[in-house]
Hints:
Elements: H1 3-6, E1 7-8, E2 13-16, E3 25-28, H2 31-43, E4 52-53, E5 56-57, H3 61-71, H4 81-92, H5 97-104, H6 109-115, H7 120-138
Antiparallel strand pairs: 1-2, 2-3, 4-5
Helix pairs in contact: 4-5, 5-6
Amino acid sequence: MRWDTHVDFARGEVYATETKSGKDRSIPMSEDCRHLLLELKERAAAGDYLFTYAGKPIIDPRTAWAEAVSDAGLEDFHFHDLRHTFATRLGDAGASAFDIAALLGHSSINMTARHTHATEAGKRRAIAALDAWCGQVFGHRRFRGEIL
């Protein structure tokens, strides 16, 4: 990835090009991502590439990933796992399946469903939302053994 073609700080977007689907897309930057990329750019000095090693662009990201996983002491952790984590965290944060699909570049919600996994916190929030909705619709009555 290159700074000039893949990162737009003014618009707050990162551009995914040469994707598996063949469709380019823009991905909004979070504030944390923006700060991280600005710091990375500052460290990169005058380099053109986002990701480098010893001042040279990383040619094979698989090798770099394998080394990073090994250095971190992780086992059986694949780059694609990050997409699952991203999708799951977006869902957990309340993002719609359509927004998650767009961010991942999926043309089908079915593919997104394969990447998004339920979490305990997400399930509890869903039940709390249902409880709040029921409170609005039915009032704040508590049912004590009463059958409606």
